[in-house]
Amino acid sequence: MDKKELIKYFKSLGLTVHTSTKARGHQGFFLKNRIDISKNTPENRIVPTLLHEFAHFIHSKIEPDMNKTGGTLKALFGNDGDIFLPELIRITNFVDENSLCVRLYEHKDRVKAKIKEYENIIKEDYPKFMRSKKFKEFDKYIKKSKAKYLLKYDRVKLIEGGFFKKTEKLFTIDNIEKDFTDMPKAFAAYIRLKSYQKKQSRISARINKYKKYYERPTELFARLVEGLYLDNEWVEAVAPNVVRRYYELLDEGFYMELKHVHTCLRNGLCLLQ
């Protein structure tokens, strides 16, 4: 389908369409009857992105507050809409591989391996050490050491002295042995273990943030529409139940102008006829 024809059709419905904006950092963005397509969107992604944002427009007519709430599967697919979640996630993973968070999970695995490595170092001297329990020997030592700041930050600059004579000292998690020559090996390992635990928490938070975004009903619905355009046979094969329900509601006119768009896409017809 030609992007210009699609844009003309959207405009005929009262939508404002821009194709030379930043789209708030995304390939596309929909808000209040306006569709923005990023000027950096690759040519082969423009039509799928237009359809994705148009699906948000249709959804906004079904659930006017969907931009704030994310919508509901019940409103989009009927009272039993929630049963389609697993299939919709499979479609999302096909349409946007970023939804799989592969790199983040790989990074998380590397961090977990480092945590285990430092735990083993600690257990060489403290066999009963457990991450979930207080490390009393360490706590006693660290109270008297400036290394305590490295429990909160991986890199710390300490400024000491009076107004006329100040000294600066930089401590980093990579130079613990050099900066604190009296520190036992197990304690240095514990500081690094705590640092990697914080990294693990940050990665988990990012994964959860992405998951929350991708599993919003409005995004699942938009990627269903996008996926059927990209490869309808594959989408029908991996998500037969939600596709069947979608087509049933589409034929009934529930998704309003989407019916006309799908009919023209299937049959190669002009949208503006």
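[next item in queue]
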Amino acid sequence: MNRWYHQRTKDEDYFRAYAHLDVHQEMLSDEIRTKTYRLAILKNANRIRNKVVLDVGAGTGILSHFCVEAGARKVYAVEASAIAEQAKKVALANNAQDKISVINDLVENIELPEKVDVIVSEWMGYSLLFEGMLKSVIYARDKWLKEDGIILPSCAEIYLAPISYDEDYEERHNFWYSIKDKYGVSMDTIVPLAKQEAFKNVCLCQLTTENVIAPETCIYSLSIKQVCEADLKRIEQPFSLIAMGRALVHGFTLWFNVSFEICDGSNVLLSTSPFSPPTHWCQSVMYLKDPFNVEQDQVIKGNIKIVESEESDRCIDIQMEFSSDFNGHSVNGSNIFYLNSNFT
């Protein structure tokens, strides 16, 4: 199977998944996400009123309706999955059919009658870049956005921190040991596979502030107006993290923030941090096969790479190298974690 065919199949699976209502219900149930978008759009009413908007990956059309609420003259709501038919019905039910034009196609395929003043999109995936949808926003920006146009959100950052999470770590590894006590059948032989999967796949967790054991560091930041597709194929950044106290490091976590530039110069922030209210994105956790202890002010140094997966450009591989030395005792590690449809 060549990569082109494999990628086409992956894209078909991707858009088929977004044709189901449960995906959109999960996103709309995330009030932090949805209300932050609405706030940012309405605060930009002076830049949206009587303007033309392109909504990339419109889904059920909620962001398009926010733009109409902000006074948009016209909104092109582009959605490649079959949920576009529901978006048309939603526009009709809300008497917005004259303002919102739903286009059921890839944004890379469409032709519009005019350039747009605003692009709005909820393109972010787990660890920010999973699903690869930002590339579609970049394409739309380069082809359809006026030179003085705006993009919402405007900027994004990815953060890294070490974590300690005994409960989840032990549960993932010890569950199979408990089967015999529950049902009388030993499944201990599955434990090696469970560990193998846990140590190679990115896990999704709702962490708390107690899990984070060192101040986070920003490993990547981008402006949506300036980033190009080539920038996203490989991100590499050294890091240095300083432990806030004695702890057992079970792994590392990634999360992201996006910000919306407002016409008055301020910003509206959407954060998926453990220090912020939970969102459906959770945090991405990379568990280590061999946890290690750190003391107060102990430094963990390393290098992280986020690269486009060979399996699919909608998936990412996260390569980490780290080391730490304290009172003559040193630890180091090198791991590759996969963020694909097998996350847990």
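[queue empty]
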